[in-house]
Every structure is written in C-alpha cells, then in structure tokens.
Amino acid sequence: MLETERELISRWYRQNHRQLPWRQTKDAYKIWVSEIILQQTRVQQGLPYYQRFITRFPDVASLASAAEQDILHLWQGLGYYSRARNMHAAAKEIMEKHHGKFPDTYQEIRNLKGIGDYTAAAIASFAFGLPYVAVDGNVLRVISRLSEIEEDINLGKTKKLITQIAREMMGDSDPALFNQSMMEFGALQCVAKNPQCDDCPLRDQCKAYIANKVHLLPLKINKTKVRNRYIDYLIFQNEKHTFIKRRGKEDIWEGLYDFPSLEHTASLNETELLQHLRKQFLLPGEIHIAHRSGEIRHRLSHQLLHIHFNIIEGLPDSIDKSWIQVRFEQLSDFPFPEIINKYKTKNNLFKLKDIK
To answer: In this structure, which topology does domain 227-354 adopt according to CATH?
Structure first.
C-alpha cells in the first residue's frame, strides 16, 4: 500500500512538476540558497530573488566575503531577515571549518547556523542522495490527509509520527525523487484550500477523502497571541537631508535601517503626535507635520504594526547619537524593511519635494 502511494506520487511528479533552476543542479550551495529563500516565501516570489542572489553571490566564498549590508539589501522585500544573516554566518563557517567545501553529511549540514531538520534533509537528499526525508508543510499536509491524522501538526509528537510514516513510504527509493515528489504534490495538488481531489491519483488510498475529512485536515491549533504596536515614523526634512538609524541586535529587523520613530499604546491623532514630538525632541515651535500618511497595517509573525509616516519640516534640537544624517538620494543605498521601502519608493522620498 505505502509503496503504491510512493509510486503514484512519483509518477504524478514526473508528469506535473515545475521546471525550477535548483532542481537542475546537484550544487549543494545553490540548493541551500533556494531552500532558505523558500522557507517563508512562495516559489513565484522567491524565484527572481534566487536568480539575483546566485548571480551576485555564485558560491560560498563570495557570500562569506560579502558585506552584511549588501546581503540584506539584496534580500530586501523577502522578510525574515535573520535567514540572510544566518546564511552569511554559515558561509563564513564553511570557509573556516570546511575549507570552503559545502559539507556532505547530514549532521555537518545540520550543524550550520540557520539550518534545521527539514533543510538539512533537503540538502542531503537533493545534493548528495542521502536517505533522509524532508518534511515541510506540504508533506505534513499530504500525509496527515493520506493517513487521516487528527492530531495538531504543530505538536512535536505529530511531526515525529508523520516523519516516521514518510520514512516508511520512501523505503529504499531515490531520496531526492521521493522528497521532491511529496513536496510538489502538496504544493500543486493536495493544497491547503480547495485541493484537487477529483483528479487526485491517491483518491482511493486517501483516508481523509474516504471519510470526507479533507477540509478538516491537517489540524492546526493556533495558540499564538498577536500583539498590536502603534508606531509613528518621523521623516525629518531639512533641505535635502533626513535621519535614519540602524536596527540593533536581537531585533526582528536587525541590520536594516529605518527612520526615527515613536511608539505608543494606541494610535495618536496629529495634535497628540505634535505634543509628543515637542516633549520628546525639544522641537522648536515653527516645526510642523507637513504630511501624515493614513494608518498602514503590517503583519509580522506575532505582531500587527499600526504605522503612520510623518514628514516633518525642520530638524529637532535634540538628536539621538544613533541617528545618521543622509541625503534623500542616498536612501536607496541602505536596506530597509519592506513596509518602509514600499512607502519611501511610492512617495518618492528620493525627491521629497514631490510628496503631496
């Protein structure tokens, strides 16, 4: 039964898989880059980033020797920037501990910074043909439906069970083909919403389909509480200059840049914000808010940001030592979080006079 399921999925894969550049290589470095990019990113969005990244950093040595700011700038828009920082650290580790050669055992790969069980298994199987199952969200979904697993897939014991089932399904077959087939099947056929059950080659074997529970599985119990944060970004304008600052250690945007800001317990109106500005930065009376955006909401993993951007004419009397004064045309030289990058590009902050 299990072998039949594996054969059916493999046959489906040969007929339906997407032609992607990282599937045309055994280069562990390129496979690693693709896997890290795709951890929190859809293939359609990640593909151009992968191509630009490989062009700019074609091997471990070029990545290891790069400046962090250059890497983050190239990563801009993908989010979860710790992925890029971890890759940079891992590339340096490969150069120092492995003499520039990407490690070829599961445990050595797993020991690299930023690499977990799934990524280590994916690289080990795709690049080196090692018999490890790569269990990502797609595989969790496929097996939970095939086997009618009604336990929360976020639980460690459930993931352990699904991993064991995947190992049994793989048997002594080609690990790379099996892992690619399972992941692609989940990405294209057995999708989260509106799966294509009517023409599914595994319909007769799928316990969830037989029990009419496909729409109920996999089971996910979300216990994460989302925290609301209310932020006013301050874009000071003095002729052609403004201020930016670099995000610090242990920050979700570590290594990126943003504008000075004030954070509140609730959203402020313009009058209330001016009062805070004068108190916080000792603003002279003639300074005023020339432009204030509407509220922009930006969702992070466990946070919902409520953001206003404020163009403020003039400079404060009190300037934090961490602020960096730059010309507006220099803003494109710095990596910003995507929500800020979109705003400054859309509103032409490179030529502030054009803002309406």
So the answer is: Nucleoside Triphosphate Pyrophosphohydrolase (3.90.79)
